[in-house]
Amino acid sequence: MIGSATAQEICRSLQKLGNEEIAAHSQGFFKTGRGEYAEGDKFLGIRVPVLRKEAQRYKNLSLKETVVLLKSRFHEARLLALFILIKKFLAGSDKQKSEIYGLYLKNMKHINNWDLVDCSAPYIVGMHLEEEKRGILYTLAGSNSLWERRTAIIATFHLIRENDFSDALAISEILLGDKEDLIHKAVGWMLREVGKRDVEILKSFLKKYYEEMPRTMLRYAIERFPEKERKAYLQGTLK
After folding, report:
1. Do 91 and 83 touch, CB atoms closer than 8 A?
2. DSSP secondary structure, 180-224, as one string
3. What is the pLDDT of residues 53-90, one digit of tens each?
4. Which pLDDT value is given to residue 237?
5. Separation of alpha carbons 16 and 198, rounded Å
6. What's the first-to-final CA gap in the chain, in angstroms?
């Protein structure tokens, strides 16, 4: 448990843990090529379980240095920073949680891939908003940034776990016409999570919108349905 380290020192340590073969695979998997959604992102080649162990090691890193780490050009350093922020958030006082939430929103341009959003938004954003006004989710849902829109819907995962579906459904409706496949997948995933807890609420939403939903979104949403029912949705023959 190291609290006096700096982000620069941690980045040097991470570079020693890197693996060129894993990094090359990650560059392709996370679409870092020209014109792709993560163009120019840099990977060291470190597996997530290793980063989680490093997060435990550095969980007492100062908040200031954690934010510096979040601004790193290396994807794994940013992911590590988010793992540390989650630990701080879960262990923090209400005041500390509010501060971390604020820092998260201020630094969203560095939370710029689907894994970075998905690991952190349900906790730092979703948990914080459980007892707060949630207008920020609708602002994010209307953003030009793919990652901010994904944050808007993925943050509702925590609320869904608490059987609070209203914002997930409302934001899903807002994002129905989104052009990005990563949004279609995220919305479909959250709708499926709603259905795990109340399938009738999901079916009510689908009855209204399934014909206009992108196919990927619909497929994700109905993944747990019986095959015959899935086909009816996908073929537009639902009665």
Report:
1. no
2. -HHHHHHHHHHHHHHHHH-HHHHHHHHHHHTTTS-HHHHHHHTTT
3. 999 999 999 999 999 999 999 999 999 999 999 999 99
4. 85
5. 47
6. 59
Query: Measuring CA to CA, which residue among 157, 143, 11 is closest to residue 70?
Result: 11
Residue 219 to residue 77: CA distance in whole angstroms: 33
Using CA atoms, how far apart are residues 42 and 27, in angstroms rounded to an integer?
A: 7
Sorted by sequence, the CB contacts under 8 Å of residue 35 that are 6+ apart come out as: none
- Is the dihedral angle over the CA atoms 226, 227, 230, 236 positive or is it negative? negative
* pLDDT (0 to 100) of residue 238: 83
Residues 154 and 146: their CA atoms lie apart, in Å, by: 12
Distance of CA 96 to the CA centre of its chain: 21
State if pTM tops 0.90. yes
The counts of H helices and E strands in the chain are: 16, 0
pLDDT along the chain (239 residues), means of 10: 80 96 94 92 96 96 97 98 98 97 98 98 97 96 98 98 98 98 98 98 97 96 96 88
Look at residue 2 in the predicted model and tell me its pLDDT. Answer: 60
Let me know: does 69 contact 58? Beta carbons within 8 Å.
no
Q: Are 144 and 156 in contact (CB under 8 A)?
A: no
Residue that has been written with the tokens 């590590």 in this structure: 80
